[in-house]
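Section 5: illustrative case.
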């Protein structure tokens, strides 16, 4: 190891030590450890109960429709993929992959958008941070999320600016974007509920989770 690299490593360690002296940093780290342990215990208990259950999963069975709830609506809030579209895709997936999925929520997803004023700007209709895809058509910086604690998928709306209508045909593209996001989030659900060999409670590194879902 070169002297400069060694010095940098020592500086990083010292900076971490100084940071850890802060009571708020210590409390945040303890809280994260408690959350990780709580998730690990809950998942291990669920796996144990599943393995003890006398009722085996019927892999050939097709589960019922997943409930869809719309929480944001308006004349300029667009959901290109309808509940019927989502159900049609779900029926084409392998049996059992959506077992345990509590629901699908359609909304703006304002809470999930990155707050970076240097890159993202609020749309002129709802004020949600995002990007103008084409003239008069806006999306958030992400199209959907999976909430592991509730096993719920959120799919985020597009917003059309009435004073500047899009000049391009976008219906098919937007529908495909929504449906591909839906399948991507289902992959997160499968990873969360079926992960055994790698430890479900270890599924907390964003890059690895995204690699699996892709």
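Designed sequence:
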């Amino acid at each position: 190891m070169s002297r400069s690299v060694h010095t940098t490593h020592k500086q990083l360690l010292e900076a971490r030590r100084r940071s850890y002296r802060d009571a708020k940093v210590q409390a945040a780290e303890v809280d994260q450890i408690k959350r990780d342990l709580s998730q690990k215990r809950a998942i291990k208990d669920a796996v144990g109960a599943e393995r003890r259950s006398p009722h085996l999963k019927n892999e050939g069975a097709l589960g019922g429709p997943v409930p869809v709830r719309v929480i944001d609506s308006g004349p300029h809030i667009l959901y290109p993929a309808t509940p019927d579209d989502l159900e049609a895709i779900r029926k084409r997936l392998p049996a059992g992959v959506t077992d345990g999925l509590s629901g699908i929520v359609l909304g703006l997803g304002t809470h999930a958008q990155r707050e970076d004023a240097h890159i993202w700007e609020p749309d002129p209709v709802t004020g949600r941070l995002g990007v103008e895809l084409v003239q008069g058509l806006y999306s958030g910086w992400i199209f959907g999320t999976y909430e592991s604690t509730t096993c719920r998928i959120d799919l985020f709306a597009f917003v059309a600016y009435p004073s500047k209508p899009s000049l391009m045909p976008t219906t098919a593209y937007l529908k495909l974007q929504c449906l591909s996001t839906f399948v991507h989030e289902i992959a997160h659900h499968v990873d969360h509920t079926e992960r055994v060999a790698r430890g479900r409670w270890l599924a907390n590194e964003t890059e690895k989770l995204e690699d699996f879902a892709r």
